[in-house]
Specification:
The protein is mainly alpha-helical. It is about 65% helix and about 10% strand. It contains seven helices and three strands, in the order H-H-H-E-H-H-E-E-H-H. The protein has a three-stranded antiparallel sheet with strand order 1-3-2. A hairpin with a 2-residue loop joins strand 2 and strand 3. The longest helix is centred in the last third of the chain and has 23 residues.
Amino acid sequence: MEAADAQVSPEELMIAVEQLVLHVRRSATTGGLSSAASSVLTRLGREGPHRLTDLARSQGVSQPNMTQLVTRMERAALVRRTADSRDGRGVLVEATDTGLEVFRQRRAERTQALLEVVERLSGPEQEAVRLALPALARAIQDRPTDA
């Protein structure tokens, strides 16, 4: 990588991230999910069951909107609602076996899309990506949560 290539502005970096995210998201087509449904299924596939209210909060939507989305996903056999064993009044949403399979297939599609992009880079650029992306993920995970 040339020294001039390393001198990118924060805006150029953001544009690159946006392009990468859009490319990877578009590559996942299994299930024909909306971005909201894909996001919810990804969260459930990675983290397990969540309360409907927590899903709404994490996705930045109202509880009625999340209820509608979960209802559509239930009809597609991707999720199911179960009683929260810790709070009988609460409802948990969990991915079904079908939902988990769609989650895995979509993750594989996104992984393949990322690998194809990275493979087009030079060796040093590939190494830089393999170091930078996990470091960014750790920085996101380690950031203080908003109280």
